[in-house]
Amino acid sequence: IPGVMATRVIENRRDRMVTILVAPLMSCSARLPVYILMTTAFVPPVMYAGGWVSLREIVLFVMYLVGIVVAIPVAWLLRKTFFKGETPPFVMELPPYKWPSLRIVVARVYDRSKAFVVRAGTLIFATTVLVWAAGYFPADHNELHELQSQIENTEARIEQLDVQSDHEESRLATTELAGLIEHQNQLSSALVETSFLGQMGHAIEPAVRPLGWDWKIGVGVIASFPAREVIIATLGTIYSLGGDVGEGDASLTEQLRAAKHADGTPVFNVAVACSIMVFFALCAQCAATLMVIRRETNSWRWPIFTFGYMTALAYIGALITYQVGMLLLT
User: Fold this and answer.
1) With the C-alpha atoms ordered 239, 241, 243, 244, is the resulting torsion angle positive or negative?
2) Which residue of 14, 207, 288, 291 is 20 to 30 Å from 328, comparing CA positions?
3) Distant-in-sequence, close-in-space partners of 1: CB < 8 Å, separation ≥ 6
4) Rounded to an integer, what distance in angstroms lies between the CA atom of residue 131 and that of residue 127?
5) What is the 3-state secondary structure (H, E, C) of the chain?
6) Which residues sit opposite 227 in a β-bridge?
């Protein structure tokens, strides 16, 4: 987002537009949870250089390079098609620098932060609500709500028993709580599968199967279009672990490793993990960035174009990664 907004200093419109359109290819911190989860779960912990560098670190570094490397031919192609013209000399006059006024700096930071929250934040919130609604309806959540009430009551009872130092009853109540939470997670997973979001995942499964993905990965990718890191919570819900898991959660890692197709073959392997990471490295899964592009270009045409070309690029990149990876694994 700051990179897109910083293009205002580029005077030539063609150069400014090309920079805006390739800026989302740069890897940001939102992609990091996906990289960490996939590398930790499926990349072997092989060490090189006498134990100074691991294969996981190399893969993580390569994922950050993917966007930079791909941006170069994309920028060249944009200059040869949509933004033809002579390349102007890059000359930028630098003003004399002075110590800024603290009052002015604070005022500018507040003004820009407010502008971002009001303009982009409202659209992000609206997009998030739509994704939540797609994952919530049309299933009946009454049983889930009753389970949540039972969990809250049990937690309150455990606190009371701990105060009374009734350790045996507290232990029994803790065991009961664990069973209720497990049931809640399983029910949440089933509700997601029957929701509009789950139906979309099943609908796109034939399209994502060449990438090595099943419908669950497809649901995670759809849910993460407003923000990439949402896929972690979505996979946690789908695999009956709850939506509050993190990328470093050992239980999520184990569930992904144990996931099987109907024929008994593993859902995930190194090729699938790399396919997912490449897709997330190249896809425009950030509503905030798209909204800022809309604001900077004053048109819906360019954020739609950015979303379209990056999604197509991500699909092709993930397809090649998986197919080549499977050839190497066999």
Assistant:
1) negative
2) 207
3) 116, 120, 288, 289, 292
4) 6
5) CHHHHHHHHCCCHHHHHHHHHHHHHCCCHHHHHHHHHHHHHHCCCCEEHHHCEEHHHHHHHHHHHHHHHHHHHHHHHHHHCCCCCCCCCCCCCCCCCCCCCHHHHHHHHHHHHHHHHHHHHHHHHHHHHHHHHHHHCCCCCHHHHHHHHHHHHHHHHHHHHHHCCCHHHHHHHHHHHHHHHHHHHHHHHHHHHHCHHHHHHHHHHHHHHHHCCCHHHHHHHHHCCCECCHHHHHHHHHCCCCCCCCCCCHHHHHHHHHCECCCCCECCCHHHHHHHHHHHHHCCCEHHHHHHHHHHHCCCHHHHHHHHHHHHHHHHHHHHHHHHHHHHHC
6) 286
Per-residue pLDDT at 20: 93
Burial class of residue 163, CB neighbours in 10 A (0-12, 13-18, 19+): exposed
- Name every residue whose Cβ is closer than 8 Å to that of residue 188 and which is 6 or more positions away in sequence: 144, 237, 240, 242, 243
Which pLDDT score is estimated for 242? Answer: 62
Low-confidence stretches of the chain (pLDDT beneath 70): 90, 92, 116, 119-125, 127-128, 240-243
Alpha carbons 54 and 170: distance in angstroms, whole number: 44
- Overall size of the chain counted in residues: 330
Of 147, 119, 87, 85, whose CA–CA distance to 295 is shortest?
119
* Intra-chain end-to-end CA distance of the chain, in Å: 41
Provide the whole-model pTM. Answer: 0.77
**Six-digit token pair at 56?**
């996981």
**What is the Cα–Cα distance from 120 to 124, expressed in whole angstroms?**
6
Cα–Cα distance for residue pair 46/282, rounded to 1 Å: 26
**Phi, psi torsion values for 47, nearest 5 degrees:** -110, 145
Taking all residues of the chain, what is their mean pLDDT, rounded to a whole number?
84
Residue 141: half-sphere exposure toward Cβ, Cα within 13 Å: 14
